[in-house]
Amino acid sequence: MEPIRTRWRMLTGGLSGLILGVAGGIVGIALLAGGASGGAGDGGTSYIMAGHLPPLLTVAGQDVTIRYAIVCPPPGGDVSSGEPCDGGGDVYIRSGHTGGFERLSLTRGAGSAAGRYFVDVPASIAADPRGFSYYAVLRDRDHGTELTVPAGGADAPQQSFPLRDPVTVALGAHSFGATRTADARVADAPWGDGVGQAGLLGGPTSMRIGPSSFDVSRDGTVALLDEMNDRVERWRGGALVGSVPVEVAAATSDFAVGAGGTMYVIDGRSAAGDTPLLRTFAPDGLLVRARHIAERTWSQLRIGPRGPIVQQEPSEQWMPATDGAAPLDRAAQARAGSPGRPLADGSQLVVLRSGVGEVRLARIAGGAVRASWRVLSATPLGEVQLADATGDRVVLVVKAYTDTQDEFVVLVLDGRRLVQRFSVPSDQWAEAAPLAHFRLVGSSLYKLGSTPAGAFVDRYDLGGAR
Amino acid sequence: MKPLAAFLATFVVALALTGVTGARTHTFQSANCNTATPQPTAGMTRDGQMNYAIIAAWDGYQWGGGCWNNDDHDAAPNDPPQQYTGGEGGDCSGFTFKTWREAQDTANGGRYYWAPLRNVHGPYTAEAFKNAAGAPNGTIYKPNADAMDGFASTWHVGLVFFRGSGGWDQIIEAKCEACGTNLFDESYRSQSAFGGIRRIGWTG
Fold first, then answer.
1. Tag placement on chain A: N or C end, fewer CB within 10 Å?
2. Residue A55 and residue A360: Cα distance in Å, rounded?
């Protein structure tokens, strides 16, 4: 009997081990999965976000309504209801750009297509010849969270300027197909990962992304951000002259080259739960620094008078990332926000795409409008790709579009009139960063484009600036 | 000692084999997502759905996918493009389908809440949205597109979160594997490859 009992015990022990082992393996996998799953997935945590389209530039007689979208968890956290959160807040506003603010409470509207919460600006403020400035404190009344827009609050409020006597340019209906030929192709990179090629991501059923941005130096050297191949390629006179490795995401990042060849890349993805990173690279591609920008979303990166500047939302302001060589933390960036892009002479260019077919543009200096323009088009206008100064002129590049056609319109303006106008093909076969298609260097305009064959940069000479 | 040795030996072998097998077949989708019945809802406001959409931010992108968990982390990054691997996140059309509270039945224009962890892509591709396929979907004149309207091409679709001051749009979208799902500024409105699209039946 003893051998049978022993065999039975061994069988029992082995079977127990098998069952518990399988169970242990399943539990282990389940625990690993649970560790990855995190939150409840129903938006239980508290947060508040906003959308706001500031009336940066107004025209005579314009009624001004300031609107906000407030995005936060619905009461009780029940996302399934489809109902909005219980928002509210106040706008602090003043005539002109100095002095104390007056508080106006936001009204909650029935619809939310353009922002549910609004306030009508009193006519005495809206019509002030100096313009007005304001910021908002938005609230999730159910959870007690608050958000200040712009992020700098009273230190860097949003500003609105009146256009008293703008140069008005009536474009009429856009004539598609009459585009100007480029003066030179200064970079030409077929798709691929070899020398002189450019990487392409995506395909027929997903986003196609090519080189997402570029910049041009004073000497005409084109630096192309080939993020799919983790490099920056440098071209001069249509020939590749070098390449340096950079570690960046395979996403649509924006890119700018500063003094001495220092390179800046703003990330086309967001660090988990945080704002995007602005990375600084030495000319040889060595990562020098990576710091978060102030806000959640960016539209463009450029070089300003004191280093890289980033236009950000929801503030809809340009914010400096550095003060010379010194990086700024997020609060300092927000406190230095401005409605226009800062220029080297201390002025700033403020841009507003208004209605269906209008662009308003103003050069602001000393807190007042020094020159202004209204561009009116019978064809819908899309994004302003570029607004920049060259000498005493301003170059504006804006997209004209219909459901089936689109082209970029280039306008050269001075203080009295439209000096030059032409169109260029959009050439957006692959995606790039949203406002990274043009750069102005001196009197040359450069365009980043793409076709099924590859990516390229074309140069258009605008003639002498005065 | 022999029965104990037999127990330990089979336990270790079974544990290892189960773990390895499980790890091989385990995906974010298989471990976390469900097939719960969607919940019909009377209301569907644009800002309510902006809130729903933003929950998916930072939770990744998965081609062909439609399940995420709101932990602001992509549990399955670096998937190969245009391949379904069971990772976390929606793709552009799956994300739009869930955010727009649509039904699997294309003839049904009703509103249905799909919890983030409900794994569903829906019947529409980006191109189908562009062509306004299905009862809940329509087109819109692009200059008039507002919050939670969208822009679709044959390869991508994204939803307007808010307009930008320079004529671009803040778009909430499941964009690409490295980009993830998030708010991005885009110029889709002016690109002729993209058409304006809308969900029929907003209640506010």
1. N
2. 11
